[in-house]
Q: What sequence folds into this?
C-alpha cells in the first residue's frame, strides 16, 4: 500500500504556476528523493503535504486517508524537519522537545531522553534554542521530527549545516531508523551524493512539473556522457592537431586531456591515442552521477531534451 | 480537540512567560505604574483627600476604571502576542505542521491569559487598597460579569488583530499593542458617556466596553447592578466574538492560500 498518493496537484501564485498538476506516490518504507532547482516547486509541494498551503486543485491521500479532510489524524502520524524552520528560541532544547512531545501526545520524558542519547545531544538539553549552532539546531530538529515515531517523515535538507562527520552519523541514524521501523521518507537535499546514498527513487521537479522519476542508477543512465581524463608522460605537443583530425572535442591542461564523450566513444578515443604513440601515464573515466542529471535538468528542464 | 495539545500550548506559554522580562512588565509593572500615577493625580485633584467624603465615588471610579481597563488591555494583547512570539522566533510553522488546531491554540492562550488577568487583578486590587483605601471588590459579585464581558470583547479584538497580523505580517504588530488606545477615548473608561459630544454617543454605544464602564460607575454610585448595561454588553460581545472568529478564520485561510504562513516575519 502506498503511504502517500499525490494526484494532479496544482498551485498558482497570482500568475506564477508553482505546480502544474504533479502526481507521485511513496510506497511503504520507501525513501523518495525530491530534487529540483530553486523555484521548481519542492517547497510548495512539501508545504501542501503539511497543510500550511492550500492547493488550487488535485488531491492528496496519506495513509489511505484524504489528507485535507483528516488533517489531525494524518499529521499525528507524520513529521517534518527543515533547515529553515526554527525552534522556540528562548526555550531550552529540553523545553522545546517537551512541548512538541505533548503536542503529539507522547507521554513522559523517556522518548526525549532516548532520542537525545541516540543523537549524542544530551549536552544540549539545557541550552536555549537560540544559542545553538546551525548544526546543533539541525540535530535537535531531527529529534523533534522523530518524537511521535512517524510513519512518514518529510526531511527538508536534514544534513545541511552539519559537519561532514555529524552528517554521516545523521545519515547512518536515519538509515537505521528506516531499516528498523520501515518509515517512509520524502528527502530533499542539495547534496546529490547523499541522495544517491539514501534514496531508492528520485523525482526531479522543474518549473512545477515532474521531469524525471526513477531510481538514481537509471536516472544517471539518461546522461550519456562520461568524463574521460588522460594524463600523459610527456607534454603532448601535437595533441591539438590529433584532436582536430579525429573530431574529438577536448581540453588540454597540465599534460592532461579532458574529454566529455558517450560511453561507446571512449574505447575509440583511447585506441586512437595508443595507436598514435602517445605515452599514457594514467586514465580516469567518471560515470555520470545525479549531480550531472541535476545540472542537465536545471539547464534544460528535462532529461528528455 | 485534544486536551494534550491544549496542555502543550499552555506549557509552551508558561515556559516562554516565566523567562520573558517584557511579559512580566506587562503583567505587573505597567498596571502598577499606571495605577499609581492615575491614583495620585486623582487624589491630588481632589485636594489630597484619600478617604474623605466623596472619595469613594471619584477616586473609586478612576481606580475601578483603570483596573478594568488594564485587565482588558492585558487580555486583548495576549492572543495576538501569543502568535507574535512564535512568528518572531520563526517557529510557527513547527506548530502548524503538528496536528494542533487554531481552536486549541486560542483556548490555551485564553486559559493562560486568564491566569495573567487574575495576577494583574490581585496586584492592582492590593495596591488600590493599600495606597488609596479603595476596594475594587466594592463592586461585589457584579465584578464577575463585568470582567467576564470585558474579557470576551478583549479576546474578540485579539482574534481580529491576530487575523490582521497573519495577513500583513509583523508590519501590523503595532495593532497588538496600540489598538486598545484607539478605543480608550470613546468608550467612557474614566468619565461618563455624557461628557462626550453627542455625535460620538452612537459610536461609543456600539462597543461593549462603554456599557461595561458605565455599568461599573452605576454600581459604585448607586450600589445597583444596571442589568440593561450587562445585556447590551453581552449582546455586543456575541456579535464581536463571532465577527472576530470569522475574520481570524478568513485571514488564516487566506494566508494558507497565498502560502504566507512559512514566510511570516
A:
Amino acid at each position: 500500500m502506498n503511504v502517500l498518493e499525490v494526484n494532479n496537484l496544482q498551485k498558482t501564485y497570482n500568475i506564477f504556476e508553482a505546480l502544474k498538476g504533479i502526481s507521485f506516490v511513496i510506497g511503504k518504507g520507501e525513501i523518495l528523493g525530491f530534487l529540483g532547482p530553486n523555484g521548481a516547486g519542492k517547497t510548495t509541494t512539501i508545504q501542501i503535504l503539511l497543510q500550511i498551503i492550500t492547493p488550487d486543485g488535485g488531491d492528496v491521500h496519506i495513509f489511505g486517508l484524504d489528507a485535507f479532510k483528516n488533517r489531525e489524524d494524518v499529521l499525528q502520524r507524520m513529521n517534518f524537519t527543515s533547515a529553515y524552520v526554527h525552534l522556540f528560541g528562548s526555550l531550552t532544547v529540553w523545553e522545546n522537545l517537551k512541548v512538541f512531545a505533548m503536542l503529539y501526545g507522547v507521554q513522559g520524558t523517556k522518548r526525549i531522553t532516548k532520542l537525545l542519547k541516540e543523537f549524542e545531544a544530551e549536552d544540549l538539553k539545557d541550552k536555549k534554542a537560540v544559542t545553538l549552532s546551525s548544526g546543533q539546531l539541525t540535530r535537535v530538529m531531527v529529534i523533534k521530527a522523530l518524537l511521535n515515531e512517524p510513519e512518514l517523515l518529510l526531511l527538508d535538507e536534514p544534513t545541511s549545516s552539519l559537519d561532514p562527520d555529524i552528517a554521516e552519523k545523521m545519515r547512518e541514524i536515519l538509515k537505521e531508523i528506516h531499516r528498523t521501523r520501515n518509515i517512509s521518507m520524502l528527502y530533499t537535499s542539495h547534496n546529490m551524493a547523499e541522495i544517491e546514498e539514501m534514496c531508492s527513487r528520485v523525482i526531479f521537479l522543474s518549473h512545477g512539473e515532474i521531469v524525471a522519476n526513477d531510481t538514481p542508477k537509471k536516472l544517471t543512465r539518461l546522461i550519456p556522457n562520461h568524463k574521460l581524463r588522460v594524463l600523459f608522460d610527456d607534454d603532448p605537443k601535437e595533441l591539438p592537431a590529433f584532436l582536430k583530425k579525429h573530431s574529438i572535442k577536448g581540453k588540454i591542461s597540465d599534460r592532461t586531456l579532458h574529454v566529455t564523450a558517450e560511453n561507446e566513444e571512449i574505447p575509440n578515443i583511447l585506441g586512437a591515442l595508443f595507436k598514435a604513440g602517445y605515452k599514457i601515464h594514467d586514465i580516469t573515466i567518471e560515470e555520470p552521477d545525479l549531480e550531472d542529471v541535476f545540472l542537465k535538468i536545471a539547464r534544460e528542464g528535462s532529461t528528455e531534451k | 480537540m485534544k486536551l494534550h495539545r491544549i496542555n502543550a500550548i499552555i506549557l509552551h506559554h508558561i515556559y516562554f512567560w516565566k523567562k520573558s522580562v517584557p511579559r512580566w512588565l506587562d503583567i505587573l509593572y505597567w498596571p502598577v505604574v499606571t495605577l499609581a500615577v492615575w491614583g495620585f493625580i486623582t487624589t491630588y485633584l481632589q485636594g489630597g483627600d484619600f478617604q474623605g467624603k466623596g472619595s469613594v465615588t471619584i477616586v473609586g471610579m478612576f481606580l475601578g476604571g483603570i483596573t478594568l481597563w488594564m485587565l482588558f488591555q492585558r487580555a486583548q494583547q495576549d492572543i495576538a502576542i501569543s502568535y507574535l512570539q512564535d512568528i518572531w522566533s520563526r517557529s510557527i510553522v513547527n506548530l502548524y505542521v503538528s496536528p494542533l488546531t487554531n481552536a486549541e491554540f486560542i483556548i490555551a492562550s485564553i486559559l493562560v491569559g486568564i491566569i495573567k488577568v487574575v495576577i494583574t487583578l490581585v496586584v492592582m486590587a492590593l495596591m488600590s487598597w493599600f495606597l488609596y483605601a479603595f476596594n475594587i471588590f466594592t463592586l461585589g459579585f457584579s465584578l464577575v460579569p463585568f470582567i467576564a464581558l470585558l474579557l470576551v470583547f478583549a479576546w474578540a479584538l485579539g482574534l481580529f488583530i491576530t487575523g490582521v497580523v497573519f495577513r500583513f505580517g509583523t508590519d501590523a504588530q503595532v495593532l497588538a499593542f496600540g489598538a486598545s488606545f484607539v478605543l480608550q477615548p470613546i468608550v467612557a473608561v474614566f468619565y461618563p458617556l455624557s461628557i462626550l459630544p453627542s455625535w460620538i454617543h452612537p459610536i461609543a454605544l456600539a462597543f461593549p466596553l462603554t456599557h461595561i464602564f458605565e455599568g461599573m460607575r452605576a454600581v459604585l454610585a448607586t450600589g445597583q447592578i444596571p442589568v440593561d448595561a450587562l445585556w447590551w454588553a453581552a449582546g455586543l460581545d456575541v456579535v464581536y466574538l463571532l465577527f472576530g472568529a470569522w475574520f481570524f478564520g478568513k485571514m488564516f485561510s487566506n494566508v494558507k492560500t497565498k502560502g504566507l504562513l512559512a514566510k511570516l516575519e
User: Anything to note?
Assistant: The first strand of chain A starts at residue 2 and ends at 13. Chain A has eleven helices and 14 strands.
